[in-house]
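Standup, Tuesday
Yesterday: got the pipeline producing structure tokens again.
Today: sanity-check two examples.
Blockers: none.

Example 1:
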Amino acid sequence: MSTVSTDVARVLIAGSWRNATPQSTFHSTDPNHNSELPQAFPVSTWEDCEAALEAADKAAVELRRAPAAKIAEFLCLYADKIEAAKDTLVEAAYSETGLARSPRLADVELPRTSNQLRAAADSCRSGNWALPTIDTKAGIRSCYRPLGPVCVFGPNNFPFAFNSVAGGDFAAAIAAGNPVIGKANSSHPETTRLLAELAHEAVVETGLPEATVQLIYRTSHADGERLVSDPRVGATGYTGSRSAGLTLKSAADRAGKPIYLELSSVNPVVITPGALSERNESIVNDFVTSVLMGTGQFCTNPGMVLLVAGDETESFISAVKERFASTQSGTLLSPAVARSLSKSVSILTDLGADLLTGGGEPESDRCAFANTLMRIDGAKFLSDPEGFQTEAFGNASVLVVAKDIAELCDVIDHLEGNLTGCIYSKEDASEEADVDKISFVLEPKVGRILNDKMPTGVAVSAAMNHGGPYPATGHPGFTAVGVPASLLRFGKLTSFDNIRPMRLPALLQDSAPAAETMRLIDGQWRTGDVG
């Protein structure tokens, strides 16, 4: 961090790119060379937050009156602009994160971002996300309505798809009818600035309130807590470290403000003896590819593998160790990620995990850390389950070798909440009794359970749950991926009792607002008019 520069990026507040009122500035890092990038970004004081809140509060009132079709038009136009600016965005994101230009950024993440904006637009247009419900006999009608200004804190590992002014939380909040105050992640502020420029253009061209999208880059910890607990805030979406997330949650909880957190997850993968005896090499390939892809910087990275002692398990471990040791480590997102990974590995080895390969200190000329594989037995894990679940975010994983299925299930029973849990088993039914036991204890621990595939991919599907019990998220009943369910986090359920027809929101009037709108009318889900 440095003192305030004369050439500092501007913040977007109340529809205008303006100079911040910074207390200091910061720079992002080129992780490929571990060097500071030239553009300075402001650490805003509360004055900027106050101005953004005031503007968002006014915008929220206007958005409540805006037709759903107008909001959907904005989301689609914004998606178009993102695709048109693909080359510029990809280059900025590559410079700030080290993630591969292709296929990762250009061919996977950027299309995913524009597609989820369009999916949110479809849900906004139909209104199905709002669960419109009509009871003609009782004279009561209900649906979800906009909640108010939403603050979005984006993570470091998805500069497009989870960006605070373009990603899933942003799309859901806007589609639900709320303005967004985006807080850029310090790992990719320039990428976020470019996205915010496009979003602002789309806001102006579609005639939405100019404060529908606002952007600040960083605040003090105290101002961040004050921001999420402000009376004008409807809710907050946060993806990041457990410690920072829980600090924000504590502040929001004291004020009674919803905050939806994605924190930490080791994403256990269970591999049965039968699966290894049947297709050891294939599973080795699946695991190594998954844990080293993107240098392991996915929230669904398989950070823990649960095995049963035996010759096939030893063969699996030996093959994985060789692959880890012989594969060039990838670039990590930032110096902070490299330091955090090194610290987590040290914690695990100090507790007694055996270091099979990797470890050590981060590289100095780029943000990188050796591919790291650790091992413990089931009894050792059970002696300190909390400690051995320390998340090593990056290209590292822990193998837990239980003496039998009973001990393996005991290990699972001591796991914290996770985003995902996976079971690899023999293709025939000979292990079903054991798999039933494993599934029974694993399912309550995770938000998504998988068979015979690694958890890294998170499909943009209406059936997807990207959530899970604490500490994977702050609430097990919601998802950050999957329209329309993701929109519900940013809505307020409102019941209209004996309200005159002309005063009802469009979703609840007798005439259906759109041909595709599905409403629960007198106990039956259907399209069409009431009557």
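Example 2:
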Amino acid sequence: MSATSAPNPDRHVVSPTDPAAGSTGSAGHPAASAGGDPLLTLVGPARAAELTSASRDWSSLTLTPAQLAGLELLLVGAYGPHPGYPAQDEVAGVPVPTLIVPTGLDPTPQVPAPGSSVALRDAEGVMIAALHVGATIPVPGTGQGGAGQGGAGQGGAGPVRLVGELEGIRLPHHPDHPDLRLTPDQLRAELRARGWIGPQVGEGAAWAVWADGLLHTADVGRIRALTRQGKRCVVLAPVGGADPADARHHLRVRCLLAALDAVDAPLRPSEATLASEAVASDALGTGGSGRHREPTPDPYRRPAPGDATRGRRSLLVLVPALPSPLLVTPREPGLSATVLSGPTSTGATAGATAGAATAGGNGDGVPTPGQDGAGVDAEPGAARDLGTPVNRGTPVDLGLEAAALSRLTAERAQLASAYGLTGSLTGPAIGAPGRDELASLLDSGGPIPAELTPPTVAAELTRAVPPRLRRGLTVLFTGLSGSGKSTLAGLLVCRLLEEGGRRVTLLDGDVVRTHLSKGLGFDRADRDTNVRRIGFVAAQVAGAGGTAVCAPIAPYAEVRAEVRAMVRAAGGGFVLVHVATPVEVCEARDRKGLYAKARAGVIPAFTGVSDPYEVPQDADVTVDTARLSPEESVDRVLDHLRLAGWLAAD
């Protein structure tokens, strides 16, 4: 499934001896195509040194992961041979990367004026490209004025779009899976070497199958149907913005590779009668239709280290496009294929989209303990996909969603064409499992049926996502001072240790203040920082398979949601316990005299007196120690943990 060999991580920095170093780049400066890449427009070493030296006097912009992904697509030639940021969101009906920044750029608080240059850097400060600003455009709806096509826009406070030409120095560095990260020209060369494209094959043999999450059994079946027609499928996995230290990212890649093993499995007897079956794509046009004979590899090609995989019928390539939440959600079946007239040197799409694509190249993301982008769970403790989940509680405007899907289809078709492919599939196969179905199986530790997910993929998932009984967990008690949080947390720790089976860490509020958060005050910012620190430690404990029991006041819903997100992102479960003891009872218990000091004005911004406590709307368990004894309260927590599968049933 990999390329011929593992590329050098710095392979796209042109050496002084590169024979292509004398070619002309996008801004009229000497440029080079690393490794003979005609679409990859990077400047030569002399110009790179000149830009690097000049950048000391420029403004610098550290790009976000999403912005860095867009820049990489521009530099590899996915949108043509002259990279730059246009003034429009779309060019020829295809969405293009844009660069929108706040008005305050380091080191000056001003938007760069047209005619100036900006150094575009990654998070480590490495200069990736130079942007020669041609215009600055206020982003509509931000209330900013005074900046236009020719103005600097210095007085506004809203974000602006930077327009101009790019000179690329190097591509962003990706330490993860370098053998799967091919530029468009590298992929074209790989396809020619495999005999998947070329005059001996004919048009329409190589197709893109987009996988924003996983490939399940139904998706594998669709790919196998294409290969039975002589097509060869390249699975393009959008990984723009992926953190190479994120285990979920690597799990997703392993699952995709495992799915391709299923694609390449021998033909089953039940499939033999389907060798002539049609797929929706063949009805869409002449560009990718028809049947093709088995491709013949080039007999004059010298064998390479990766030739052991040459007999495969599919290939996985990681592309710097951003995964889309619309493309990991199962939807009603519909046409989702785009036929292109053929690969072009500039990557321009020469074909028509067959309707708006139904979302998903897969039907599901990678299930893991997680949550959606807004911190809302489908159900308490549910395993969530870790691609780009959708907040199901948010109403969806179907018209806007259809327009977004149409834009995504056009964008993905453009990228498929740029990568040398003649068709693009962006819809889920009928029968792919939903998130909740797969998550419930993983939570319980039950087997994943082969009719849902290939056994090779299921093996990767079950190895990485243990059932709840063996998964890390964080239990967060929240409530007013004096509500009984610390007492309940300590008692819960004792009960868990008595039962055995879990390694438990107690993070009590007062103890944390002494060790982890020493020096922090009690204003809102410091209190939020204290809770975030507790959440970070709890996430690390849960991610390593342990159990963290925490007992801060945690009065603000936003920060509690951040902690939930941190824990779930680390692979742990999260249970929120609201200790709902009334403030009058808490004040009557006031052993430290804190409430009295707060009412006397000695302690400002005291939770429950002069500062609000935001009652949790998402608590998994609620107890009131004014009505229940500590033992009864902890029993309720234990009952929930058993019912939800975090502890073995009695």
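Quick observation on example 2: The first helix runs from residue 45 to 54. Residues 1-35, 142-156, 272-310, 342-396 have pLDDT under 50 and may be disordered.
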